[in-house]
Amino acid sequence: MAAVPSSLEPMKLGSGYHTPWWATAAKWGLLAIAGLFAAYVIQKLISSGSWLGVVITAFIAMCFLAVYGTRRAVPMKYLLPGLVLLVTLQIWPIVYTVATAFTNYGQGHTLSKQDATDRNLANSVKEVEGTERYKLSIAVPEGTDVATGEITFLLTKPDGSMFVGTSKGLEPLAADGIEKTDTGKITKAPGYTILNAREANKRSKDLNAFAVPVNANAGIKSVGISSAFEGAPTLKYDAAADTVTDTVKNVVYSPKNAYWTAPDGQTLATGWKENVGTKNFSDLLTNETIRSGFFKIFLWNVAFAALSVMSTFILGMLLALLFNDPKLKGKGFYRSMLILPYAIPGFVTALVWASMFNQEFGLINSLTHLNIDWLGNPWAAKAAILITNLWLGFPYMFLVCTGALQSIPGDVKEAAKIDGAGPLRTLRSITMPLLLVAVGPLLIASFAFNFNNFSLIYLLTQGGPFAADNTSIGSTDLLITYAFRLAFAGASPNIGLASAVCIFIFFIVAAMSYSGFRRTKSLEEVN
Amino acid sequence: MSNVTDAVAVAVPDGRAAVAKSPRASGSGTWWRHALGLVTLIWALFPILFLISAAINPAGSLQTSSLIPSGSSLANFRTLFDDASRPYTSWYKNSMIIALVGSLGSVFIGACAAYAFSRMRFAGRRPGLLGLLLLQMFPAMLTFPALYLTFAKLGDIIPALGLNSIWALILCYLGGAMGANVWLLKGYFDTIPKELDEAAKVDGASHARIFFTMTLRLVLPILVTVFMLSFVGLFSEFLLASIFLQDVNSQTLGVGLYSMSIGNEKNRLFGQFAAGALLASVPVVLLYLGFQRFLIGGMTQGSVK
């Protein structure tokens, strides 16, 4: 143990010649815990019927056992956890994003065609006069949020038999642990959280669209929040012709744009997910409204990133030159103070500046006696964002420029001086080129970071202000805030189109990173 | 004319004068640098001063906020902690758990990977390193549509790992842990002489023993740097956190404070918001001020290497 400091002696861990018993025990203990966890996950996956998940989980578990249970594959012992996370949470999402970009996944298009058809049919259920009603309790599976969990009907028939109804169908409910009122309404059921009236009313929109399919010819819908009826759907699906017929109005719906569409253009509420090929991409490039907005956003995105890097770099460099004087006292103090804007978490900065830019009560207008609608005027909002980013980013440039300046050898400046160069000439011809060589890659990295600076824009302006006639494209939107709004906000979320935008950003960022990596010659350093 | 004197002045006391800008600056002092420095300090600090004075402002609304505090009280802090519909302490706890567990996890994963890449020779080592570099060109953040869909589905099967779970979010953050730091870490691991490993090996130490008891201690500075960079990054992350954490009790400081600063009540809630924002800044600011050297070193290496 000559090379190991003696203070390290008490810690003994490893699987070599003198492996202590507890290290072995700990290793197998951890493996056992991992195995139990895998078994739990597999059991859950089996009960939900996702066989691909079962295979993947079992495969990962076997890999862990093979790598850590034997003495082989030593490098893998160090790489496996990171590798598994990398493949499942970085590579898989990339693949899945690409796949989603070729679909119409989004609001009203989350189900397969079969499920969407079933749901439309179940929703068209009409109550038949004279049939008896069920007692209904609205519930969500235990452990899920009452505001978002999957709606489940707990039903009691007039004869007292109980059922669980979900969007997948109707199943009998075992009587164990059930509590009912005198009228038969279920008040407690193991495995479910029953919603109270207020919670149920909040979900009324979901309830309106919800029905339990009983079979191809019947469905159960709620009336109010405590009773339900079973009735026959007015829609009929014809598998041979691939059409849906409304038997009351006598209208035939055929599939069009992933909706059941009537000849007059009317569609049924639920659409389905389908492959749309390159439509999302071609929309971005050819659809007039989307394209012009997309192009505008792209220009501002590039301008924002470039101006941010330039402004922060210039201010940071000037400050670095200012404080780069060996005789200047209190440099440590200045540095500690100037680091503060960078040290404050980004979301705090953006939100505080958003308040300071408030037109009526904000600090900026009251200090400068201006009355600018900073966040409501497209150009002022752009300026506000650049000012905020300058404040946020100049300390970083100041720090890296200070570092770079101090690493410039004194003798080259000395040589310049001997050759008769003045301070400005030295700065222009000696200091600046050397500085730029040192910080060049950082400028590219900073550009790439700002290109996707989601939180600054989103927290400061939410991408706005928006033109009155177009609420999907804001004047300070970056591509990434645009994609975010497409996917999660807006009138009709469209995750497919958002994924296509993300892929565009992928390529742009990849091109930038590539030029950055080439400069650093990282690729040649691998040995 | 001054060329000759310059050259002489520089040539004699070589160490100090070589860095000096000119004889004039060294003679007439540095007051103008301090004057400009003061202007810079005002620019750098006035938003922070505004935040502090808004946090201690007794009236607590945006209308009454000002740069110089008009009085001081802890009323905003009290309402912040008493507001049941905005569970600030839960947000704080969530943010700290996410940042701590996430950054410890990514340091550990990164260090393990760097040890393998730096100390061992195995098939696929070079393609692996290059592949990790290549993968960094695709920021994980951009896959948010797929991450959302994946975890929404996973949550149906295992509720503890669905949306609204900070553990699922931590897993997401760990996905990029190996790729993001391995180059920086490997560079530092390479500077530790291999002879140390070999000596330990001759003495009978196993690879795990060498790694845990020797290498990890020798590379501690870079581990601290990586830990802090990822702590700061995760503490401030907003995009994925806002997609994942919709339930108010599972939110992070960023998502929670954002929800306070939008909507009709934002002006009334401003004092409360400022108090929360001020407290939220404390951990990261302390980290920065306490470990400036580690961070500054990491900031430059992180991108260059």
UniProtKB/TrEMBL annotation, chain B:
The membrane-spanning stretches of this chain are 31-56, 96-117, 129-151, 157-184, 218-245, 269-291
* Keywords associated with the record: Cell membrane, Membrane, Sugar transport, Transmembrane, Transmembrane helix, Transport
Q: How does it sit in the membrane?
A: Multi-pass membrane protein
Mind listing the GO biological process terms from this record? maltodextrin transmembrane transport
List the GO terms this entry assigns under cellular component, sorted alphabetically.
plasma membrane
Task: Kindly report the protein's main subcellular placement as a broad class.
Answer: membrane
Q: Which Pfam families match?
A: BPD_transp_1
Tell whether Amino-acid biosynthesis is among the UniProt keywords.
Answer: no
A single GO molecular-function term is: ABC-type maltose transporter activity
State the family it belongs to.
Belongs to the binding-protein-dependent transport system permease family. MalFG subfamily.
Write down what this protein is called.
Arabinogalactan oligomer permease
